[in-house]
Amino acid sequence: MRSDGSDPIREAARLLADRRNAVALTGAGISVESGIPSFRGAQGMWAKYDPMEYATIHSFMHSPRKVWEMLSEMVSVCGGAMPNAAHKGLAALEEMGVVRAVITQNVDGLHQAAGSRRVIEYHGNLDELICVYCWKRYPTLERWIPGAVPLCDCGEILKPNVVLFGEPIPWLAQEQAEEEARTCGVLVVVGTSAQVSPACDIPRIAKESGAAVVEINPEETSLSGNVIDIHLRGSASKVIGRLIERLKETDDVSPGH
Ligand code: APR
């Protein structure tokens, strides 16, 4: 409860209970509590690696060894990470019939590891490598050696099946994500600075299609002042935990209803 008497968690829980067909859009912030740094901000990956030098398809094609320095760090950090209470909370909300899908910008696979069934990987996933010449695919851990550049049987360099700057979003993922945004009752935006397009357009698409938009972030973002209806300030695990508690108090959302 805020000093002005408003209770945003209660409001958000009420929205979710009333509308039920909620979709979540997640970013790096949801995995910070799993030990994976976000991208922006003082501790972010881009503070260490200039994304225009280390994360564009242009830089990958011209300096793959250099780009693999950054990619290797991501593969090892994500490889050792476990889903946290926020990932598990979204999976529980799916089980409760409140959240029907997760659109994630993350490439760490932690939503699936937490038990979420419908996950749209908007920026791909690190657990697969693809040859940029013959398109052959390999499980990352089959070909990746820390510090080395993984090669395809054709001899060319392999790239993780993630979207680097300058690459298009996988067509199916973009179609599915926009369809979920157009038809959801509530979009819950968790842990994204919403600075990267076209992912940052998803909240606007949902809003223009009549959905309520709820944001979970310890900070304000570029969305906060405009498309957001309710801003829940705090860490993803804490806020999602409190939302679930409130929902369980709401008599028509207890598990199995
Ligand atoms: N819980 C919730 N949100 C958090 C937490 C937390 N514990 N910790 C940080 N955040 C918030 C930050 O306040 C910030 O708004 O998460 C956001 C992370 O923002 P970014 O680092 O910009 O990550 P993201 O929005 O996912 O980046 C989008 O940009 O670099 C590319 O392809 C990359 O998918 C990525 C895309």
Structure, described:
The structure is a single chain. By secondary structure, this protein is an alpha/beta fold. Helix content is 37%, strand content 17%. The protein has eleven helices and nine strands. It has helices at residues 8-19, 45-48, 51-54, 57-62, 64-79, 85-95, 110-114, 140-143, 171-183, 202-208, 236-249, and strands at residues 22-26, 99-104, 119-121, 124-131, 137-139, 158-162, 186-190, 212-216, 230-232. Strands 3-2-1-7-8-9 form a six-stranded parallel beta sheet, sandwiched between helices. Helix 1 (8-19) packs across helix 11 (236-249) and helix 6 (85-95) packs parallel to helix 11 (236-249). The radius of gyration is 19 Å and the shape is elongated. It binds adenosine-5-diphosphoribose. Adenosine-5-diphosphoribose is lined by residues 27-30, 32-33, 38-41, 44, 105, 123, 191-193, 195-196, 216-219, 221, 235-236.
Shape: elongated
What proportion of the residues form beta strands (DSSP E)?
15-25%
Distance between the termini: 27 Å
The largest beta-sheet arranges its strands as 3-2-1-7-8-9
Q: So how many helices?
A: 11
Which small molecules are bound?
adenosine-5-diphosphoribose
Uncertain stretches of 5 or more adjacent residues: none
- Helix-and-strand structural type: alpha/beta
Helix content: 25-40%
